[in-house]
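note to self — DONT lose this again. spent like an hour looking for the file last time. sequence + predicted structure for the chain T wanted, 264 res
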Amino acid sequence: MRKTTLDLLARKGTKPISMLTAYDYNTAKNIDEAEVDMILVGDSLGNVMLGYENTLAVTVDDMIHHGKAVVRGAKNAIVVVDMPFMSYQASVEDAVRNAGRIIAETGCQAVKLEGGTEYADRIKAIVTAGIPVVAHIGLTPQSVNTLGGYKVQGRTEEKATKLLADAKAVCEAGAFAVTLECVPEPLAKQITEQIPALTIGIGAGRFTDGQVLVYQDMLGYSDGRTAKFVKKYADLHSVMLEAFKQYKSDVENRSFPNEEQIYN
């Protein structure tokens, strides 16, 4: 039976929430089999699946396409789909319309959008329409050009105060969870203690209500540099590279296919 937002909220302050990204059916199926609580179809698919430099070129149609596949693969986890750049920023009406499309066409259980106080009205309208929302504050990749790059947020007293106000605003607007990205651990702890919503950390330390990672990062899917907050649980890049090289060699020396792989 699929988990609900109420199931997860009941665990605040007790048992931490696990969350991973997925963008396709088989990965979602494997993550779900591992009993991970939440799956995020992140607009990070622009980077890790589509090869874009950042997330800004991702569209609502992209999110729906990948979201459908993930929902088909995950039967127990709560599936959250990101609202991409400019799908909610322009107006409340756009926000509700696009959130509704994502929910209706993918079958996911919640949407996620970036921004704090300035987008609280969007969150409130989406929740009023009957759609659960995960907020996202701190480092917000859709604002990379105004943030000046991928940097830790909230390190000064002024910026920390702003992030705390953002967390309270999105919570009051109705978000059931708040993603905290690249936030100093003491600030993330303070936010977690002061809001009733779940906090899901990515680079936010040990005291949030849960954690999320991009699955390609934690599996070592590429040999590129990863953020400090990533723990690599496997080295799939090396495994895949060796398998591909062995396949190439077997084809070239005609050891594949052999008697076991042919029909007589």
